[in-house]
UniProtKB/TrEMBL annotation, chains A, B:
The keyword RNA-binding applies. The active site is at D206 (proton donor), H379 (proton acceptor). GO terms for molecular function: 5'-3' RNA exonuclease activity; RNA binding; RNA endonuclease activity; zinc ion binding. Signal peptide: none annotated. An RNase that has 5'-3' exonuclease and possibly endonuclease activity. Involved in maturation of rRNA and in some organisms also mRNA maturation and/or decay. The gene is rnj. It comes from Actinoalloteichus fjordicus. GO terms for biological process: rRNA processing. Belongs to the metallo-beta-lactamase superfamily. RNA-metabolizing metallo-beta-lactamase-like family. Bacterial RNase J subfamily. Binds 2 Zn(2+) ions per subunit. It is not clear if Zn(2+) or Mg(2+) is physiologically important. Binds 1 Ca(2+) cation per subunit. Seen in 1 crystal structure, it is not clear if it is physiologically important. PROSITE patterns: UPF0036 (PS01292). Ca(2+) binds at G60, D62, D454. Substrate binds at A243, S244, H245, H375, V376, S377, G378, H379. Its main location: cytoplasm. This is Ribonuclease J.
Length: 563, 563
C-alpha cells in the first residue's frame, strides 16, 4: 500500500551515511507555498519557496509562508535555492528566506529570476542570482543539478534533476505536456526518457490535475475562440487573465492586431510582468500596438482592447470596480464584452461570480471557461502524467503540489504504470522521507506550522489571534468596564457596557448594567477585591445572560480597574 | 431590449384598475429566499416564502429572510400563501411570516405541507393549511389558482397558474423536465400546452440552470452507477445527499437491498424527512431494511449502508466529524467508501473539498459528481426551458430564481422562442412590475434590505453590526481603558491596554501605554475633561501608531471612565 504517515509524529533519527533526505515544508496536502528541502551529508538544497494565499480560516492574513523552523538553525548549511518557475506559490516567500540568509545563491531561468528580482526590489533586497537554461548543469556541493525544459502556464519553467551519491531525483515543478506549445518549447520528454534510461531513483511529481482524466487541450486552441468572440464585438472588450500568463496574453495581442484594436494593460502586476516579458523577448508586440489606459480611453471603444488583472474576483482590482460600477474611468454598458481567460481557483467562486453578476447586471456579455474554451489548465491531466511516468520509469514516487485528493490520484497513476505501491509515498508537509539504498521510507516528522504575514509583521499572528478573530467575526464582543475600590471591592461608578458587532439595537444591552451591578454587590459582600476574580464573575454572568437571551456567543470582555 | 431596472429607484405609483402587480421580495438576483407577491384590486397573493443561507459577507448570521416591509402594513390584505415545494429556500421563512399573520391560509401539496408542519412545530406554530394536488383549482378572492405537477429534486412539487381579470400568470416554481421520473410524475407539459392554447400573459420561470446547455440526465441513470460503486465495496459505505431528496434516497435503498446491506439514516433532518416520506408512502422501504445507527454499528461493516447529511461540508455534520477523525462512533479507515450523491453548491467548495481531503487522507475512496455520475441537477437546463417556453407560448416572461447571469441567460432563451425582448423583464428583488392590458412594464421599486436571523433574534443584526464583525474578524481590536479625574482630566491610574485578535506576541502593545500616557498629559494640560473628547484623542493616537508600526487596521476601542 502507498506509504503515508498520517499518524507518525516522532522526530526523525539521524540521516544514515550515503542516504538522501527529503522534507516538504509546504505544498503537500495543500495547493501553494511549495518548498522542498533535500539533505545529503549534512548539506541542504532547496527547491522553490512560495507563498499560499489565505482562505476563510485565516482572516486578515495577507500571505502564508512555509515554516522555516526546520532549517532555521541550519541556514548556513544550504548550498542553494533552485526555483522551477516564477509563480507566487513557488517564489513568493523567497524574500523572507533571504532575510535569514541574504547571500543564498538562487538558481533559476531568466524569466523566473527577472520576476524574482522585481519582487526583491520591493523588499529592498539584491539577491545573488545564477541564471540557468534547460540542458545546463550546475553543482552545489554534493548536489549536481540538471535542468529540463517544461511547459506550464508561464514561460521558461524548468524541472530539475538532482544527482547525489544517494541517487538521482527528478522534481518536475509545475508541469504539463502541451505537444504544440506556442513558443515551441516542449516539455523535454526525450530528456526525461534519457534520464529514465540512466535510472531515476525518485520522482517528485505535480499532482494538481491528477484527478482529471485525459489531456489538457492545447493552449493554441484558445486563439481561434478569442478571435471569434473579439471579432464579433462592436464595443468595449476587456480580457482578464493571470498577469504572468505570457502566452495567453500573446494570443490576445494577436487577436487585437487582427481586429485592429490597440491594447492597454490594466493592473499593476500586468503592466510590470508584460514589461519584463517584452524586455526579454518572450512576447511579440508589433510597434505601436500598446498604448496606456489614458490614451485608450480617448479612442473609440471599438478600437481598443483592455488586458486586465482581476480574473479571480479580487475586490480591489479594476475589474471588480467596473462590476460594482465604481471604476473611476471605465463604465461598463450594455453590449460590452468581458472575457475571463483564466481558471477559477477553488475558493474564489463567490468572488468571481460576484464580479460576473455585476458585469451581467450592467449588460455586459461575459465569456468564461464555462461557456467557451477560453482557458486551459497549466497542469498535466492524468493522461499526460502517464506519459511522464512511462518516460521516467522511476523506482520511487512522491506526489507533490496537491491536496490529499490530488496526491492519492497521482500515486494511483504511478502505480498503474508499474511503480510498486510500497514505493509511492504521500508525505504531507513535514513528513521526513529518506532514500536509503534506492528505497524510500518514512523516517519521522518535523513540526510544521502556519506562518502568517499580516501587514508589516511576520509570525506574530498565530493560531490564538486567528481563533480570536474568528470568534469576533462571528459574534462581535460585549465589553464591561467597572472601577472598584481596591480596598473594599465596591463599585465606585456604574459599569460601562458596550458592544460592537453584537446588535444594531441600541437597547440590546440595557439589562446588562443592572445584571453586573447586582453581581458586583454579591462579590463585594463576599469580600472579593481581586480584580481578576471580579472580572471572571462578571464574564460568567454576562455570558450566561447573552446565551439565554440571544443564543449568541460574542466575546465577553470585562475590564476591572481598581482605583 | 430586455426590460431591466438597474437604476430605477422611485416608488411605484398606484396600481391602475384592472392591472396585476408583481414584486419579488426575494429570489431574483440571488439563489434563495424566494418570495413573490401578486397584487390585484388591493388584494395580495404570495407564492413561496423561503430563506437564504448566508455567505462570507454575513458572518455569524444563521439565516437571511425576505424583507417583509413592503407587505407589513398590508398583512391583512393577503388572501393566501401558495408554496410550490418543500425546500428551505421556498418554505424556510414561513414561520416568520406567520408571526405577523398566524391565520394566513397556506396552500401546498401533501409533502410540502408535511415538511412545513414539522418546521412550524419547532416554532410552536399551528399553521392553517390547505392541501392541494396537481389538477386542482382553488380560489382566493380574485385570484384563481390551478396547480400543475412539476418534477424537481423533491417529490410533490407544483407549478401554479394564477388567473385574475388582468390575465393569466404561470409561476413554475423550481422545475425540470425529467422524461422518465422515478415516481412517474412528469412535469405536466401537456397541461402547460393547454394553458398556452388558452393564453399565458406572463410566465415566471426558474433560471437556475439557464446557462447550462442541453438537458439534465435522468435521475434514474444514477441507480446503476450507485450499484456499481456499492456492489464493489467490501467495507463501510456512506452515501451523503440532501435530506429532502427522496428519490435519490430511494435509489440508494434499492441498491442496499440488492447488495444485502441494511440501512441507517444519519443526521437529524435525514431521519425526520425520511420518516415523513415513509408515512406518506413516497418512499418504498422493504420490511426490516432500516435500522438505527447504534444497531448498524453492531453489524459487520459490509452489511451496512449509512445514508447521511453533510454533503455540503457543514462543519457540525456527522460526515465532517468523520473526516476530521473526531466522530464519536465512526472511524473511517483505508478502503471505506464515501459517496457524495449531491450537488456542490457554489460557495461551499472549500468546505466540501476539506471534507473530501480529510476522508481521502484517512484512506477512504470518495465517489462524487466530478468522478462518477452520482448526481443530476433538479433544475431545467437550457434545452428543457425551450420545451417549456414552446409549450406555454407566454406573451411576457419574467425570469426568477437566479443570479444575474442566470436571469439574462433565461431571458435570452425566452427571446429565442419568439417572446419579444421588450416583453422579457429582469426585475431584481424589489422591482415592481405591472401587467397592464397584457403588457409588462416596470412601475418602480420598493426598498428591499437583508433581514438577518442570528440566534433567537430577527432583525437586530443589521449592516452596522455586520460591518463591525467584518472589521473585528479581519483585525481584532485594541482596547484602552483609562480612569480620569472628572474635574481635572488627570489620569488617576496607568491605562489598561489589551488586544484580542491582534497579535500572539505579548509585547506587541507594550509601547501603547506610554503613548497613551503622553497623550493624556497633553489633554490634561489643554484642560480637556470631556470623556468623549479624551477617548477620541486616544483613538487617534493609537490608530496612527498601529497603522505605522504594523500596517494593520484593528478596531480601536477607548473607554474613558470619569471618577
Amino acid at each position: 500500500m502507498t506509504l503515508t504517515a498520517t499518524d507518525q509524529r516522532g522526530a526523525p533519527g539521524p540521516l544514515p551515511e550515503g542516504a538522501l533526505r527529503i522534507v516538504a515544508l509546504g505544498g503537500i496536502g495543500e495547493i501553494g507555498k511549495n518548498m522542498t528541502v533535500f539533505e545529503y551529508d549534512g548539506r541542504l538544497l532547496i527547491v522553490d519557496c512560495g507563498v499560499l494565499f489565505p482562505e476563510d480560516d485565516s482572516p486578515g492574513v495577507d500571505l502564508i509562508l512555509p515554516d522555516f523552523r526546520a532549517i532555521e538553525d541550519r541556514i548556513d548549511d544550504i548550498e542553494a535555492l533552485v526555483l522551477t518557475h516564477g509563480h507566487e506559490d513557488h517564489i513568493g516567500a523567497v524574500p523572507f528566506l533571504l532575510r535569514l540568509r541574504p547571500d543564498l545563491p538562487v538558481i533559476g531561468s531568466r524569466f523566473t529570476l527577472a520576476l524574482l528580482a522585481a519582487k526583491c526590489k520591493e523588499h529592498r533586497q539584491v539577491p545573488r542570482l545564477q541564471e540557468v537554461k534547460e540542458g545546463e548543469h550546475t553543482r552545489h556541493g554534493a548536489f549536481q543539478c540538471e535542468f529540463f525544459a517544461v511547459n506550464h502556464s508561464i514561460p521558461d519553467a524548468l524541472a530539475v534533476a538532482i544527482r547525489t551519491p544517494a541517487g538521482t531525483v527528478l522534481h518536475t515543478g509545475d508541469i504539463k505536456l502541451d505537444q504544440l506549445p506556442l513558443d515551441g518549447r516542449l516539455t523535454d520528454l526525450a530528456g526525461f526518457s534519457r534520464l529514465g534510461d540512466e535510472g531515476v531513483d525518485l520522482a517528485l511529481v505535480d499532482s494538481t490535475n491528477a484527478e482529471v482524466p485525459g489531456f489538457v487541450p492545447l493552449e493554441r486552441d484558445i486563439g481561434p475562440v478569442l478571435d471569434g468572440v473579439i471579432g464579433k464585438a462592436t464595443q468595449r472588450v476587456i480580457v482578464a487573465c493571470f498577469a504572468s500568463h505570457v502566452h495567453r496574453v500573446q494570443q490576445v495581442l494577436d487577436v487585437a492586431v487582427a481586429h485592429r484594436r490597440r491594447v492597454a494593460f490594466v493592473g499593476r502586476s500586468m503592466v510590470r510582468n508584460m514589461g519584463i516579458a517584452v524586455d526579454l523577448g518572450l512576447i511579440k508586440v508589433p510597434e505601436g500596438l500598446l498604448i496606456d489606459l489614458d490614451e485608450a480611453l480617448q479612442l473609440p471603444e471599438s478600437k481598443v482592447l483592455l488586458v486586465s488583472t482581476g480574473s479571480q474576483g479580487e475586490p480591489l482590482s479594476a475589474l471588480s470596480r467596473m462590476a460594482r460600477g465604481d471604476h473611476r474611468q471605465i463604465s461598463i454598458r450594455a453590449g460590452d464584452t468581458v472575457v475571463l481567460a483564466s481558471s477559477l481557483i477553488p475558493g474564489n467562486e463567490t468572488a468571481v461570480f460576484g464580479v460576473v453578476n455585476g458585469l451581467v447586471r450592467l449588460g455586459a456579455q461575459i465569456v468564461h471557461q464555462a461557456n467557451a474554451k477560453v482557458h486551459v489548465s497549466g497542469h498535466a491531466s492524468a493522461g499526460e502524467l502517464l506519459y511522464l511516468y512511462n518516460a521516467l520509469r522511476p523506482s520511487n514516487v512522491m506526489p507533490v503540489h496537491g491536496e490529499w485528493r490530488h496526491l492519492r490520484a497521482n500515486a494511483a497513476l504511478a502505480e498503474a504504470t508499474g511503480v510498486p505501491a510500497s514505493r509511492t509515498v504521500i508525505a504531507e508537509d513535514g513528513v521526513v522521507v529518506d532514500l536509503i539504498d534506492g528505497i524510500v521510507q518514512i523516517a519521522g516528522r518535523v513540526e510544521i506550522g502556519h506562518v502568517y504575514v499580516d501587514g508589516l509583521s511576520v509570525g506574530d499572528v498565530g493560531e490564538s489571534t486567528l481563533s480570536d478573530r474568528l470568534v469576533l467575526g462571528e459574534g462581535g464582543f460585549i465589553s464591561i468596564t467597572v472601577a472598584i475600590d481596591s480596598a473594599t471591592g465596591r463599585a465606585v461608578a456604574p459599569p460601562t457596557v458596550s458592544g460592537r458587532g453584537f446588535s444594531d439595537d441600541p437597547k440590546a444591552l440595557d439589562e446588562v448594567v443592572a445584571l453586573v451591578e447586582s453581581e458586583l454587590s454579591r462579590t463585594e459582600v463576599e469580600g472579593i477585591t481581586d480584580p481578576h476574580r471580579v472580572a471572571q464573575a462578571v464574564r460568567r454572568v454576562v455570558g450566561r445572560w447573552v446565551a439565554a437571551t440571544y443564543r449568541r456567543r460574542p466575546m465577553i470582555i470585562p475590564t476591572v480597574l481598581p482605583v
